[in-house]
Amino acid sequence: MGKRCRLSTTNPADRCFNERLHKQINALRAKHGSKEVTLDLAIADKIQTALDAFKTSNPTGTTEELRTALKTAMAAQTSTSSCGENFFEYFENSEAFETLVMTSDITTETWYKGKQYYDFATGKIVYPPGDGDEADKAFIKKDALAFTQMMWKGSGSVGLGVYSKYVVAWFCPTGNAPAGSAQDFVDNVSDVCLVPENPAPGEKQYDRCYNQAAVTYHNNKRALHRDTGFLEVDEDIAKWIQDKMESFVDFDAAFTGVIADKGAFYNCGENVFQETSASSGGLRFTDAASEGWYAGNKYYDESTGRSTDPTNASKTAEAFKFTKMVWRKTTRVGFGVKGKWVVAWYCESQPASNSPAAEFVRNVGAKCVDSAKVNVCYNELANAAHNERRTKHEASPLVWEGAIAAALQQAMDAVPDA
């Protein structure tokens, strides 16, 4: 049987059991682009205390009585009142269960199987057609919500308890949007990131979650520059660069070969990011690479199309990482991520950094946001759209005023995010 370890009567949580399932939960969350939840042994102690109390007071109690008692006990705790639970029941004798749960992933895999009843596109539960049995629907709903709770991006910690044939996980803050909408589910529960999920022999994969997050960051920054269109993720590019990165052992040496072997993506250019902090394993869940590349804008001179300090090789290199992000002619991109490295592969990319400066002036749009944080481009576009419609109604044209826009922007910036 698997190792069991409780610290004391005042710390009754089985730490070994918690650590085991915590790792299983995070491995499954990583498949769907959800950040790791931390293991909160204080929560685990509270769950185990409640379970042990029920065992003492009502040893022959039913499953529903246990769930009710557990919810009541946890709701009474300030630290866990806003948390949500996953509940697992094993329908065999407790001795066999104890061995199984300590030596396998039956609990987390059972919760994960609820994935088959969840529609990632709509955020809704999918019931088999023609099945009108309400009891069946209740089981399907329970299974689907166990999956979504385990994946919920907004949850940051978990603690677990075990008693007889039951396992309970308490996720904080709660998932499953108790007062939310289907869109909350779409935002918090993503499909499998590494696609295709089950590749054919020789078929390449790429990280869909990271690519979508990175291209969104890029496009938000491109929107801040005049006449700069959005990028699209090209799956072929993303698969190609990810495949190259998977074969890297010594990144610096191998990447030189990648640049020389562009194959079908010869008209492309790259940005490379290396995370040097101890948390490099979390690159998939951050915008660190894109933020680092865009930060080079402070070394780029819009008027000259060159670095603000052309004699400084480091600043010049940073400036041209920025220009690759916002290059007008670039339309397609793919991202590879592995360990501490991220590579962006831009196609229809900028020419070499020593190309004529006029090419850079034409293809790197001036910043839209002025010193008062007003998006001048948006105001001009919105004002033109208003006037186009006002003309149809014989109304005089509007003129947008920077002072009004600045005051409004300042007020909006002061409003906390929802």
Task: Explain the overall architecture.
Helix 2 crosses helix 3. The strands form 5 sheets. The protein has a 4-stranded mixed beta sheet with strand order 1-5-6-2, sandwiched between helices. Strands 9-13-14-10 form a 4-stranded mixed beta sheet, sandwiched between helices. Strand 13 and strand 14 form a beta hairpin. With 418 residues, it is α+β, with helices and mostly antiparallel strands. The longest helix is centred in the middle third of the chain and has 18 residues.
Short structural description:
The chain is α+β, with helices and mostly antiparallel strands and 418 residues long. It is 44% helix and 14% strand.
Please name the defining characteristics of this protein.
418 residues; alpha+beta; 15 helices; elongated
First and last CA, distance: 48 Å
Beta-strand segment tally: 14
Mean pLDDT: 88
Count of discrete alpha- or pi-helical segments spanning 4 or more residues: 15
Measured as a percent range, the helix fraction is 40-55%
Low-confidence segments, ≥5 residues, pLDDT <50?
none
Major sheet = 4 strands, mixed
Shape: elongated
* Rg on CA atoms, Å: 27 Å
- Strand order across the biggest sheet? 1-5-6-2
SS content category: alpha+beta
Strand coverage percent: 5-15%
Series of H and E elements: HEHHEHHEEHEEHEEHEHHEHEEHEEHHH
